[in-house]
Structure formats: structure tokens, C-alpha cells
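Renewal narrative, Specific Aim 1. Our central claim is that a sequence can be written position by position from structural information alone. The example that follows is taken directly from our test logs and has not been curated for this report. It begins with the C-alpha cells describing the chain, in the order in which they were read.
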């Protein structure tokens, strides 16, 4: 019996038997619907081409035989379309591995699209703080990074996009300074073209700013109001007056563009929701990130989660579009046996990148588009930027008070590798755009 994971390998097996006929048929779309059933979509000219039509019918019969419940009956398994581009519109799509003229169209129940990588934004660099699992100190590290960048004179815009587990604003803003509204308020109001009403009152400056500025846009305002009811609506797409459909991710991107225009930051830090879902997908792939920080602790849950994600990028043919934006952060490096722990973390990370994202060439050799790094190369994306565990920074609730009176050396002891590399990255990116 065929299961979901066997669908595409078996489709490939069938098509390999007819490889010589594929150029005659023309482009082939493998449409996998919401239920996981496969149907072929081909160009209208193939209907009236006897040889091509015979091959298509034979392929449909074999797919039904090999895929069982995951295929439509042969008599309903082929659609002829005059405009194949319209079939792909709005859906996840990628080339079937091993075939030039065959594309998979994946219909998903959610709008998260890990296989579609937006180009980098042209304004201030956008840096996403992401983790496969929560509880790894990601938000605390973001707050400390914002503090350090502002200390160095940067204008930092911080957005709490972990809407279902908000809390970042408490690390950067005392309660009396929190703004009236937040991101959830804007997303709900925007659905009825009322976003401008809350826009100017959804940002507050942190008292932690010194030579620079920290602009904080929280998930919700000082009074969350009907926050759960709002959460049930923030992910809604919007139908514009011209009839066009705008996804929630596109709406969020529009908000960030507007905030950047209004406040003119030097860098934008985005706190993503943890896990592999559509909210995290938007942060990592849709918002034009310059850099995606992958927070990792040494454990099977971390590496298996990132492996799932990396493999999806590789199989979807988008690995090259995202891999150079990635950087592993070694989170919560323990106080005891730190060197041994870090070495293990680095080796696991190197193995994962080597197996899923790096090109298969001798390490340290870059030729053309081939891309690889030695395990010990400190400039490699797999080489972790370290964040050390420290009791004083373990509680996010107390971080604002702590940062107000903290010694810079103590911050450097815990976050030095992260904030040093981050400052260098932001400075170089700013120079390129300056």
C-alpha cells in the first residue's frame, strides 16, 4: 500500500519509464491536491497529438496502479489546460527531482510556504531570530543584541512576531512605556482598511537606548483587549478593492515596509515563532531576511527538526536561495564542560549542513556556484555563534531591569560571540548599501 511519502518517488519511477516521451508531451504538472491525490496537468496541444496522448493515458493508468488511493482514476487523472502558468498561481511548486520538464504543484491547507524564498529586502537588513523549539533563549538573545547594537549607535527596529507567545516587549520596555497597540491590532484593523488608525501608536522607544535607538513594536499593546479573538483573525488574507487577494504574510510584509519608511532604522530584528509552521515560514522565507539565525541546543529534537527543514529546501530546489542567509547560534552553552559541548554542537551542525545544504566538493574549495566549508571554518554558517547560559539572563521578565544597570563586560561574557558577529554583519551590509 502506498503512503504519502512514497507518492513522488513512485511518480518519478513511472515517468522514468516514459522519459523519451516527455519532450513530446511538453511540460507536465503533477498536481497534488489537499487530500494528497495526484493528477496530471498538461498543455492543450497534447490532447490532439496521438503519440503524446497515448503516452499520457499509459502514464495515468500506471499511476493509478502504483499509487492506489493517492491517484485519481485513470479516466479522471489528466487535465488539459491552455495556460499552465495559471495552474501554478498561488501554490507551492518545485521541479520533480531528476526531471527538467516536470513540476510538482502542492496544494496545502495552510499558507505557509517554506519552498518560496523572497528576495532580500533592499532597505535595512532584516535579521530573523528563529528556533525549531522554544525555551532556548532566543528572545533574550534578541533583546541583548538590540541593546548592544543601540549602544554602538545603531537605530534598531524590533518586532515581536511570536504572536501566540508574546513577551519580548517586556524585556525592552517597562510597563509604563508600552504602546497602545501592537502587531495583532494592526493586522486585524487592516482587514477593514483601518490600519492607519493604530499605526502611529504601535511603537515605543526603549529607555535602554543610548547612543542609538531601540524602536519596539510588540505583539499587542499595553492592554491586550480581546487578544484571543484578534489572534483568530490575524492570519486572514485580505481581498483588496481591486479584487486581488493578499495573504496575511504579504500584509505583514507591507506593515514592515511602512514601519521602516516611518522610523528609518539601520537594522530590523524579527523575533519569529518557534517551530515549522506558517508563522515561522513567513518570518524565515517571506519577509526578505538578510540573515536567519538558527538557534540550536545539542539534542536530537534540534537536529531532526532542522534536518526536516533543510531537506525540504533541498528537494524543493530552493536551497541555494536560502542557505547563504543562514547562521547557526549555539544557544545556552553550559557553564561546565563548555568546550566539549561546543565541539559536539559544531560537529553535528557541520554534518547536517554537509549532508543537506553544502555542495559535494572538497571542503574549503569554492568554484563557481559550488559551496562548502571545512568543519572548523569559523566563517561557515554551520559554525555556531555562541550564547552562554547565565543565571542572571535566564529570566526574560527581569531582563529590562538588568540591562538598565548591567556592565557591558557581563553582556559580552554571555552574548559576545553573537553580538560581535552580528555587529560586524550589520556594518558590512550597511556599507554595501551605503
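The sequence written for that structure reads:
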Amino acid at each position: 500500500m502506498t503512503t504519502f511519502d512514497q507518492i513522488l518517488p513512485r511518480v518519478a519511477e513511472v515517468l522514468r519509464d516514459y522519459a523519451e516521451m516527455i519532450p513530446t508531451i511538453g511540460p507536465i504538472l503533477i498536481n497534488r491536491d489537499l487530500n494528497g491525490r495526484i493528477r496530471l496537468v498538461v498543455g492543450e496541444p497534447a490532447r490532439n497529438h496521438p503519440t503524446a496522448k497515448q503516452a499520457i493515458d499509459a502514464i495515468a493508468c500506471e499511476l493509478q496502479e502504483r499509487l492506489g488511493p493517492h491517484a485519481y482514476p485513470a479516466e479522471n487523472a489528466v487535465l488539459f489546460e491552455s495556460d499552465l502558468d495559471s495552474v501554478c498561481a498561488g501554490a507551492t511548486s518545485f521541479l520533480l527531482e531528476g526531471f527538467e520538464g516536470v513540476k510538482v504543484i502542492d496544494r496545502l491547507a495552510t499558507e505557509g510556504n517554506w519552498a518560496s524564498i523572497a528576495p532580500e529586502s533592499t532597505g535595512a537588513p532584516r535579521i530573523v531570530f528563529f528556533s525549531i523549539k522554544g525555551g532556548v533563549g532566543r528572545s533574550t538573545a534578541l533583546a541583548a543584541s538590540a541593546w548592544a547594537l543601540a549602544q554602538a549607535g545603531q537605530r534598531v527596529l524590533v518586532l515581536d512576531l511570536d504572536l501566540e507567545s508574546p513577551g519580548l516587549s517586556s524585556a525592552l520596555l517597562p510597563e509604563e512605556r508600552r504602546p497602545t497597540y501592537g502587531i495583532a491590532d494592526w493586522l486585524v484593523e487592516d482587514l477593514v482598511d483601518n490600519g492607519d488608525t493604530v499605526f502611529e501608536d504601535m511603537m515605543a522607544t526603549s529607555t535602554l537606548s543610548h547612543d542609538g535607538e531601540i524602536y519596539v513594536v510588540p505583539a499587542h499593546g499595553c492592554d491586550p483587549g480581546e487578544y484571543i479573538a484578534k489572534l483568530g483573525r490575524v492570519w486572514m488574507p485580505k481581498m483588496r478593492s481591486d479584487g486581488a487577494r493578499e495573504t496575511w504574510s504579504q500584509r505583514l510584509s507591507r506593515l514592515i515596509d511602512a514601519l521602516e519608511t516611518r522610523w528609518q532604522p539601520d537594522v530590523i530584528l524579527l523575533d519569529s515563532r518557534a517551530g515549522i509552521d506558517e508563522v515561522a515560514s513567513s518570518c524565515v522565507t517571506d519577509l526578505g531576511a538578510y540573515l536567519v539565525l538558527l538557534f540550536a541546543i545539542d539534542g536530537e529534537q534540534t537536529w531532526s527538526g532542522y534536518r526536516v527543514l533543510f531537506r525540504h529546501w533541498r528537494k524543493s530546489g530552493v536551497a541555494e536561495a536560502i542557505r547563504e542567509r543562514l547562521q547557526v547560534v549555539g544557544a545556552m552553552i553550559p557553564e561546565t564542560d563548555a568546550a566539549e559541548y561546543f565541539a559536539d554542537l559544531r560537529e553535528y551542525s557541520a554534518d547536517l549542513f554537509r549532508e543537506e545544504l553544502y555542495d559535494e566538493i572538497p571542503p574549503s574549495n569554492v568554484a563557481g556556484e559550488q559551496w562548502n566549508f571545512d568543519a572548523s571554518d569559523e566563517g561557515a554558517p554551520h559554525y555556531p555563534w555562541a550564547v552562554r547560559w547565565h543565571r542572571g539572563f535566564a529570566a526574560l521578565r527581569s531582563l529590562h531591569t538588568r540591562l538598565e544597570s548591567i556592565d557591558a563586560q557581563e553582556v559580552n561574557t554571555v552574548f559576545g560571540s553573537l553580538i560581535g558577529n552580528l555587529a560586524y554583519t550589520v556594518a558590512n551590509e550597511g556599507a554595501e548599501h551605503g
